[in-house]
Design a protein that fits this description.
The protein has two helices and five strands; from the N terminus they run βαββαββ. It has a five-stranded antiparallel sheet with strand order 2-3-1-4-5, with helices on one face. Strand 4 and strand 5 form a beta hairpin. It is globular, with a radius of gyration of 12 Å. It starts with a strand and ends with a strand.
Length: about 80
């Protein structure tokens, strides 16, 4: 199962980004950021790969200064392969 993480350096902006999904009624979750991603605020927004274009459009609507990047997580058994998009 693959999914995307939107990672920010600001908790406030992470929550704001999550609420943009919520307002559009698109399934997303706030989860702890994996340590492999790097130094961030500690939480990120998890959503399906199908919603990536919508997430990218959110960045056009509001300029998030603390946006760190999108990361694709590929799950293979108990292992996660995390790559920056």
């Amino acid at each position: 199962m693959n999914f995307i993480l939107a990672v920010f350096k600001s908790r406030n902006e992470t929550l704001y980004f999550f609420n943009m999904f919520k307002n559009k009624r698109i399934l997303a979750q706030i989860i702890n950021t994996p340590k492999e991603v790097g130094q961030t605020c500690g939480i990120c927004v998890k959503f399906s790969e199908n919603s990536l274009a919508i997430a990218q459009s959110f960045l056009q609507i509001k300029p998030f200064r603390s946006f760190y990047g999108f990361f694709r997580v590929n799950r293979k058994g108990f292992n996660n392969c995390i790559e920056r998009i």
